[in-house]
Write a structure and sequence with these properties.
Two copies of one chain form a homodimer. The first copy, chain A, is mainly α. Chain A is built from six helices and two strands, in the order ααββαααα. In chain A, helix 1 runs parallel beside helix 3. Chains A and B meet through helix 3, helix 4 and helix 5 of A and helix 3, helix 4 and helix 5 of B. The structure holds a DNA duplex.
Chain lengths: 135, 135
DNA sequence: CTTGACTCCGTACCATGGTACGGAAGCTAT
DNA sequence: ATAGCTTCCGTACCATGGTACGGAGTCAAG
């Protein structure tokens, strides 16, 4: 998997080539030297394990709810000494996740109520709006 | 709280006036008659409990992860006889929430690892990328 | 040494869910 | 009856996170 092209990197990371390029534009992934370079444009960039780890991290951090801007900061912090900041970001996000998870669990509860009530009586509309009344 | 203006409705629903208007444009909220109507434009629209319930439902359904398009369908279903479809949407969303919640819990776990590892050793960078390695 | 696939890059376009602007008309308090 | 806040409405703009296009260059295989 080492020393692959952008298509290989993208595939290994489970994203499209354009997405990799987008992350590069955002500064989240680096642009390895274009090797070969006979003509005016230089050659083709080649990517390694590090790039893949970075790409995978970006995706994981996204599911953790970080924005791409925040992920940029995290990637910078990964190579910096600012432990304080890293901890702060982590803790902040944990709190946000706690809240988000609770919110989703509440929503799921409402949906279960809806599914249940909907199955219960066999005529008339399901009480969709009512299922969310309260919380 | 009944028979209020758009600003009252918005406030009661915890959104801005422009958001209410946006939902109206999307067809999620109705446009009550403009009452008064001496001049060419008619009067001012007034909103009641039903509108507020609808608005609150929209917000709840959003936190459940429904898109506004889906919410439009739900609102239509609330007044229709298609129990099947309502159930299907609910079950589908419950499954999506199960997955999402699991995902967020995994992310939280990684973040806790990060916070922990970050607190552990007192020099050098926090292993941010590594904290998400694996899962 | 050409063909065909892939790369590079800038730029444009997209969906989602809003948020803002600005003029005209409506309402309310003084 | 007039000042000053709202409402109404169309239209424009925004942030986020991509996705697509197209021309020029590169590379491997036949």
């Amino acid at each position: 998997m080492k020393n692959t092209t952008i298509a290989g990197l993208a595939k290994a990371g489970g994203v499209g080539v354009e997405t990799v390029r987008y992350y590069q534009r955002r500064g989240l992934l680096g642009m390895p030297e274009r090797s070969g370079g006979v003509g005016l444009g230089g050659g083709i960039r080649r990517y390694g394990e590090d790039d893949l780890r970075r790409l995978r991290f970006i995706r994981s951090a996204q599911t953790a709810g970080f924005t791409l801007d925040e992920i940029g900061e995290l990637l910078a912090l990964d190579a910096s000494e600012d432990r304080q900041r890293a901890q702060a970001l982590a803790k902040e996000r944990i709190a946000a996740l706690d809240a988000k998870i609770a919110e989703l669990e509440a929503a799921r509860k409402s949906l279960r109520r809806l599914a249940h009530d909907c199955a219960a009586n066999t005529s008339g509309p399901c009480p969709i709006i009512a299922a969310f009344d309260h919380g």
